[in-house]
Amino acid sequence: MHCLHCYRYDVTAWTEERPIPRDVLLRQIKGKNALFCMLTDKIDKEVLDTAGKDLRVIATMSVGYDHIDVKETKSRGIRIGFTPEVLTDAVAELTIGLILATARRMFEAHDQIVEGKWSAWAPTWMCGVELKRSTVGIVGFGRIGQAVAQRLQGFGVERILYTSRSEKREAKGLGATLSSLENLVEVSDFIIVTCALMPETTGLFSDALFDKMKPTAIFINTSRGAVVDQLALQRALEKGKILAAGIDVMTPEPIPPTHPLLKLKNCGKYILLYIYIYILYTHHGHITCIGSLDISGLTRLSLFVAVSLPHIGSATTWARSQMSVMTARNIIAALDSQVMPAEVM
């Protein structure tokens, strides 16, 4: 906002640490030449009609712009700015952190201390999964997907697969191989979602895709919540179709603290048995019993809880400050009829 004040614009600002209420936005937008918005602000026909003919630019402090009715906005000759690149490193780092927190059960282990359940070291207690020797699938291989692949280089993963409309020239240097989505979800130990939210990716991860995953797969989403059918993810975890999930985005946001996805618990006394069963299953094929014990149902139990974060992928001081500056510069450039730093075309 300081950039805008320096250019002697008359700025009306919402200064509270919460999304601007809809009625306040509609009241304040009237007669404005520019709108500095967040991804929590739904910019639709009603907002545009209320703003009137003076509105020339909408700049969102986000890399995603699915909250803006782009077609309607463009039809009125209003330019749209967004903030790519400046948040790439922050989101990629958070993605790696979420992978490790989920695979190594960090949140769960912390809860064990807080709840007084840490009694002593034990061979199988809090055992998780390593990235080393794994197959990692990245769904969406744009800037963030590539930055995640770059950071995986030091973990000794066996191979990296990615999905894209076409082969990416950067992939070779990252040791990544183009794959179909179906093959990727079938063979990957870690499935990382970094794709953009578009009509073709909305609800992409459904029961059908979760059914194709390994029972030991770990699912990570740092893209947008609507890319995943959340009930399908919940069912996959409850039925043991996948091992664990780490999500930084969900639907709705904020998600209610009573949501079932946040309440998933691991299998308690069945954990060691599950590990033993999976070792046998991996080396000897399908097994339905150990001695006289029927274990056919236990192989479908989920081992870990779902790890959830409140959409903090870009939440570093540097990234957020650069996002705000780029948003302001987008507005200034548009009002001066200049090339914007990042314009939705």
> What integer value in Å does the Rg equal?
23 Å
Helical residues, percent? 25-40%
Number of strands: 12
Query: In angstroms, what separates the terminal alpha carbons?
Result: 24 Å
Number of H/I helices:
12
Low-confidence segments: 266-302
Provide the β-strand percentage band: 5-15%
H-E string: HHEHEHEHHEHEEHEHEHEHEEEH
Coarse morphology? globular
Structural class of the helices, strands and pairings?
alpha/beta
Q: What does the main sheet amount to?
A: 7 strands, parallel
User: Mean pLDDT, nearest integer?
Assistant: 88
Strand order, main sheet: write it out: 6-5-4-7-8-9-12
Pfam families: 2-Hacid_dh, 2-Hacid_dh_C
Organism: Periplaneta americana
Keywords: Oxidoreductase
Domain D-isomer specific 2-hydroxyacid dehydrogenase catalytic: 10-344
What can you see in these coordinates?
- The chain has helices spanning 2-6, 22-28, 45-51, 70-75, 88-103, 106-114, 143-152, 181-187, 207-212, 230-238, 271-284, 317-335, and strands at residues 34-37, 57-60, 79-81, 135-139, 159-163, 176-178, 190-193, 218-221, 244-247, 289-290, 293-294, 306-308.
- With 345 residues, the chain is an alpha/beta fold.
- The longest helix has 19 residues, at 317-335.
- It is globular.
Give a short overview.
Keywords: Oxidoreductase. This protein has 345 residues and is α/β, with parallel strands linked by helices. Helix content is 33%, strand content 12%.
